[in-house]
């Protein structure tokens, strides 16, 4: 990895500056008065926080924009200059690494996919380093510095230490990924669970903007859940909050890789669905794509498997709604390719299992390619850069 210049730091590391920057980033353009109302800060505190951000080029004042009068004088809105900085996000699966180069507003400028020939850290990390090098080269064409690298990995990830404690798809245990990636890239690195990273992207730049309480449920190779409570992404004391994939939904159901039986993941993950379709139909489908094709061709046994998975997902989402009362649950993941086969079961099971007002929670589907998961990793790097 070529050497990189010392990374630029956020120009005003105060809680007020970080809060104002984040508010303008997610809700802007905003006038100073609007920013004060949204943050609860005084107009003087907002002005003090905005000044160094404008001087450093992270915020831009739109003097020519139409504005509403404030106290008899024009109030010019401020916005984040997305082109002021770039960030890299990597999403690692068991088969490939997806990398994106985003701007400061987390808009994808460049995307790349690189296959993996092995899953051990000694095999994955050089591939990741080469991909980062390629994206850094792409960044040179934009004429601005890359200020952070985010990496998203499925499994038990300690963001505070940057350690991947366990990743089932990569088969990693206790890998100090932040230290290894920072040494290889020369960039500030953030490592997080992939579903939490996706949740950060939804909170700051997606369907969760403006919501205090919401959840992201992902279906596919695994079943994951990211939680936002009172405006903060929740990881819990041990970093595993939101593991609804291991909530039991079928008593004495099929065995799960965690050692229990009847977990949501053991019923509704791609691998579980594929295995169940083989068992029910006798057709030796090789993977989720073939299982889905069989169901779409009208095989009643395969369709029943998907209906059962939808019921389980609906009960799992109802558990989240009953415990936390979110305003919205965003359903995503590669498993949404089959959503037409179980959408009705998800909603019916949710309605039946949600208690009282929890049933008012909005269910919203948001199909996202893996590039969006890598974008989530970049969002965690932007979040870290802004001191949030």
Automatic annotation (TrEMBL):
CDD domains: ASKHA_ATPase_ROK_CYANR. It comes from the Bacteria. The keyword Hydrolase does not apply. InterPro entries: ATPase_NBD (IPR043129), ROK (IPR000600), ROK_cs (IPR049874), WH-like_DNA-bd_sf (IPR036388), WH_DNA-bd_sf (IPR036390). Keywords: Kinase, Transferase. Signal peptide: none annotated. It holds the Pfam family HTH_24. GO terms for molecular function: kinase activity. SUPFAM superfamilies: Actin-like ATPase domain, Winged helix' DNA-binding domain. PANTHER family: BIFUNCTIONAL UDP-N-ACETYLGLUCOSAMINE 2-EPIMERASE_N-ACETYLMANNOSAMINE KINASE, ROK (REPRESSOR, ORF, KINASE) FAMILY. Belongs to the ROK (NagC/XylR) family. This is NBD/HSP70 family sugar kinase. It comes from Streptomyces thermodiastaticus.
């Amino acid at each position: 990895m070529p050497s990189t210049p010392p990374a630029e730091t956020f120009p005003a590391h105060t809680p007020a500056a970080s809060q104002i920057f984040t508010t303008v980033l997610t809700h802007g353009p905003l006038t100073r008065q609007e920013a004060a109302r949204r943050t609860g800060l005084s107009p003087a505190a907002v002005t003090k926080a905005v000044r160094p951000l404008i001087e450093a080029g992270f915020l831009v004042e739109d003097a020519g924009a139409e504005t509403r009068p404030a106290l008899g004088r024009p109030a010019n809105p401020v916005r984040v200059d997305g082109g002021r900085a770039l960030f890299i996000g990597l999403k690692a699966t068991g088969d490939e690494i997806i990398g994106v180069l985003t701007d400061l507003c987390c808009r994808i400028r460049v995307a790349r996919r690189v296959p993996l020939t092995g899953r051990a850290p000694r095999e994955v990390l050089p591939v990741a380093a080469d991909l980062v090098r390629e994206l850094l080269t792409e960044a040179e064409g934009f004429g601005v510095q890359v200020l952070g690298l985010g990496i998203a990995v499925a499994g038990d990830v300690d963001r505070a230490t940057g350690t991947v404690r366990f990743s089932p798809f990569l088969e990693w245990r206790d890998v100090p990924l932040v230290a290894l990636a920072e040494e290889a890239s020369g960039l500030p690195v953030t490592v997080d669970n992939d579903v939490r990273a996706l949740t950060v992207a939804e909170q700051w730049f997606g369907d969760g903007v403006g919501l205090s309480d919401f959840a992201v449920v992902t279906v596919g190779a695994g079943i994951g859940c990211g939680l936002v409570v009172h405006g903060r992404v929740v990881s819990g004391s041990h970093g595993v909050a939101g593991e609804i994939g291991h909530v039991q939904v079928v008593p004495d159901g099929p065995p799960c890789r965690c050692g229990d039986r009847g977990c949501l993941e053991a019923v509704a993950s791609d691998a579980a669905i594929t295995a169940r379709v083989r068992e029910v139909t006798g057709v030796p489908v090789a993977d989720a794509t073939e299982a889905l094709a069989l169901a779409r061709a009208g095989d009643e046994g395969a369709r029943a498997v998907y209906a059962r998975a939808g019921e389980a997902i609906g009960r799992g989402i109802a558990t989240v709604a009953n415990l936390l009362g979110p305003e919205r649950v965003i359903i995503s993941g590669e498993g949404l390719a089959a959503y037409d086969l179980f959408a009705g079961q998800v909603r019916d099971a949710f309605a039946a299992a949600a208690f009282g007002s929890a049933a008012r929670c909005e269910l919203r589907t948001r199909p996202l390619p893996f590039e969006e998961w890598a974008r989530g990793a970049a969002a965690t790097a932007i979040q870290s850069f802004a001191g949030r």
